[in-house]
C-alpha cells in the first residue's frame, strides 16, 4: 500500500510520485493559441525539480556537492492541447533505484484530462572531471531517506 506524505506526493517500494501545478502563461502559447510543444519539457523540468525538492534532495544540493544531472534522452507524446490560463498538474515519477542513469516519467493533466506524457533520462556527472559517475553519496542518502519513510 502506498505511503502518502500529503495530497501531492506518494511513495511506495519502487517509486516516488509528486504533483505540482503550473498556470499556462500567454508566452507559453504559439500563434494558434496552443501551448508550444517545446514548453512541455519546461513543465517536465518543473515537475522534476519539485519532486526532488519535496523529498529533500533539491537539484541545487547536487550542484553544491559537485554533481550535475545532464539530460541524455527525452521524449514527449502530445495527446490533447492546452491553452493560455489553463491550470496544469505536472506529475513526476522517479524510480527508487540506484543506477548510473536516472529516468523520470511525466504526465501533464488538466483536471482529469491527460494532455501529454513523456520521460527524461539523466546521467550523474562530476563537475570537476566532467565525467559520468555512479549515483553519488548525496543521491544514495536521499533514496535511503525516502525508503526509510515507508
Annotation keywords:
150 residues, alpha+beta, seven-stranded antiparallel sheet, two-stranded antiparallel sheet, 3 helices, globular
Shape call: globular
Mean pLDDT comes to: 91
Q: Biggest sheet: strands, sense, closure?
A: 7 strands, antiparallel
Helix content: 10-25%
Secondary-structure element string: EEEHHEEEEEEH
Classify the secondary structure makeup into a structural class. alpha+beta
The total beta strand count reads 9
Strand content: 35-45%
List low-confidence stretches.
1-6
> Distance between the terminal alpha carbons, to the nearest Å?
10 Å
Q: How would you classify the quaternary structure?
A: single chain
Question: Major sheet: order of its strands?
Answer: 1-2-3-6-7-8-5
User: What is the overall number of helices?
Assistant: 3
Radius of gyration: 16 Å
How would you characterize the overall build of this protein?
- By secondary structure, this protein is α+β, with helices and mostly antiparallel strands.
- Helices cover 23% and strands 39% of the residues.
- It contains 3 helices and 9 strands, in the order βββααββββββα.
- Strands 1-2-3-6-7-8-5 form a 7-stranded antiparallel beta sheet, with helices on one face.
- The chain is globular, with a radius of gyration of 16 Å.
Produce the secondary structure layout.
Elements: E1 3-6, E2 9-11, E3 15-23, H1 39-54, H2 59-64, E4 67-68, E5 71-78, E6 87-95, E7 101-110, E8 113-123, E9 125-126, H3 137-148
Antiparallel strand pairs: 1-2, 2-3, 3-6, 4-9, 5-8, 6-7, 7-8
